[in-house]
Amino acid sequence: MSVHLTEHRNGFAHGATVITTAGEPQDDTGIDFSIWKLTRGETSTVTVTGETAWLVMAGTIKVHVDDHSVHLARTSLFDESASCVHVAAGTTVTITAGSDAELAVFATPNTARFEPRIFTPAQVPNEHRGKGILGDTCYRYVRTIFDRNNSDPACELVLGEVVTHPGRWSSYPPHHHPQPEIYHYRFTHPQGYGHGETGEQVFKIRNNDTLKIFDGNDHPQCAAPGYGMYYIWVIRHLPGNPYTVPEFTKEHQWTLDRNAPYWTASGNGS
């Protein structure tokens, strides 16, 4: 099995499409990941057996968890920040689709208890990273939904999104961490593409692809000119070694300096 999963480029069917599972025999991230598509009026109630998060990709849903109900909606992955439900094992969640809807679902076999959280776009900053550095060539939006800064220490998942501007780089400068990670991609056009690195391997990334990242490999990304690239990133903490911040590869750390000198074309080349 490859770390680059490409079998869903033609889209996802109604219901749940499983992409990765915790404990799979090869390239195991320890994370269940699926895409869930619902039709308008459809209702599903589930009591989860592990830590679970639902990320709204498209459409309108009503979520009921414990004594709370909330409506969540999304029309654009690129122009709107994230809405997400994050609960512990044993929690019962009911989701009703107010329109045709799509969600990304993540779970890991964590039985620790913590209070459920519902994140709305107002609570998920759309951070502008890379602006003013290297001529904006790595300018992108980063949306960290939950991590150790805003979730219970009992949580084992970290979840966020990146929007890579056309022709630019993200997850840059190259960085790495020992905790396993999954990227799942969408593009502004169905024919859009980019490139994703994991260590010394480079993969051509297309719509609906998924990439698994292991072993402390660097994993910068880039989008082809003309095509915006969105990806979900989800990380699983390791026992006794939670994810906090990535480690930037030493030889490229100079690119973090806002005043770093770098070559630009003079227009005099032949």
Task: Give an account of the 3D structure.
With 270 residues, the chain is an all-beta fold. It has no helices and 22 strands. Strand 17 (193-198) and strand 18 (201-206) form a beta hairpin. It has one domain (4-256): Jelly Rolls. The protein is globular. The protein has strands at 4-5, 15-20, 32-38, 43-47, 51-65, 68-74, 84-87, 92-97, 101-108, 117-119, 127-129, 140-146, 157-164, 169-170, 175-176, 181-187, 193-198, 201-206, 210-213, 221-223, 229-236, 247-248. The N and C termini lie far apart (46 Å). Strands 2, 3, 4, 5, 6, 7, 8, 9 and 10 form a nine-stranded antiparallel sheet that branches. Strands 1-19-16-21-13-12-11 form a seven-stranded antiparallel sheet, with no helix packed on it. The chain has a four-stranded antiparallel sheet with strand order 14-20-17-18, with no helix packed on it. The mean pLDDT is 96.
Observed structural traits:
about 270 residues; mainly beta; Jelly Rolls; 9-stranded antiparallel sheet; 7-stranded antiparallel sheet
Using only CA atoms, what is the Rg? 19 Å
Return residue spans where pLDDT drops below 50 for at least 5 consecutive residues.
none
Within CATH, the superfamily carries the name: Jelly Rolls
CATH topology: Jelly Rolls
**How many domains, in number, for the residues?**
1
